[in-house]
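Troubleshooting entry. The earlier prediction with uridine-5'-diphosphate gave an output that would not parse, so I re-checked the input for stray whitespace and re-submitted. Clean input:
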Amino acid sequence: MEERPAPKLYLTVPCYNEGSILRDSLRTLLEKLAQLQAAGLAGVQSAVLCIDDGSADDTWAIIAEAHRQAPTRVLGIKLSANCGHQKALLAGLMKAKEEADCAISIDADLQDDIDVLDDFLREYRLGVDIVYGVRSDRSSDSLPKRLSAEGFYHLMALMGAKVIFNHADYRLMSRQALQALSEYREVNLFLRGIVPLIGLRQSIVSYARKATARKTHYTLKKMLILAWDGVSSFSIRPIRMISLLGLLVMAASFLFILWYLYIKWTGAAVAGWTTLVILILALGSLQLLGIGLIGEYIGKIYLEVKRRPRYIVEDVLGGEEPRA
Ligand code: UDP
Ligand code: MG
């Protein structure tokens, strides 16, 4: 296969209250970009695209100043309010989809090793559409962060969502992949769950993550919300568990009912007790099953209202050009 030419690359950086480090990060990213261009890996029109996610500090002023100094190399988007990392990132990716050949998303604190950007781009040039940065080493993370993060990937897998283990949002996406991403119109965004569904050619590049220079902006609350979004928007397994539980309880009650009837007939039960227990068990399990059943339908509705694309076409041979 022929190598792709050096792409016009947008480094997409969501920034929320990054005033303390953004100048340094931008300088580092611009230097890296120049290196990538010199090495023939990134095209001349490549740029750093910062998305200010409704910061309360001077983040936007810093982006604007950098843009004035290098109008073609630093671009900015300002969101009207704090929408969260995933949505900020999406805003950037959607601009990249219109203007660039590929986008690489990276956190503003540059915890993710920027020296693997070369590998990302090499993969891209070989024809890969989605390259995941996967952390080979978490030794820079505190123990609670490490445990919660790894627990999260296990939970996701258990709940049936397809995620790449130890991949956060450090990844390259080609324009075609971005185009496909834009067809997922759901509001509760969990990019790490959606991107693997896109298909196309995917590969992995591994790297060690550094310690951050500031404290995390992913508070425990934001992390839990993200995790729940991840589970609840990719799987209706929790609902199915209720239905299953209902069935199990029902089967168990049936056995109990036989047992209580036996006790009654052997004359060992207090009058009225058997009827009461049987009623409680039967109604309880019926209700659980009923809730599960309703849940199944709600789950279906939920999957439907997201209006996800049913398929994504990678290539077409023959036929007519779409009419203008
Ligand atoms: N971020 C954002 N909106 C938010 C929270 C975070 O855009 O509401 C950005 C933040 O500026 C950074 C990235 O998301 O670029 C990851 O945040 P952080 O480094 O604090 O997360 P961690 O590395 O601890 O997971
Ligand atoms: Mg960080």
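This one parsed fine. Residues 237-306 form one domain.
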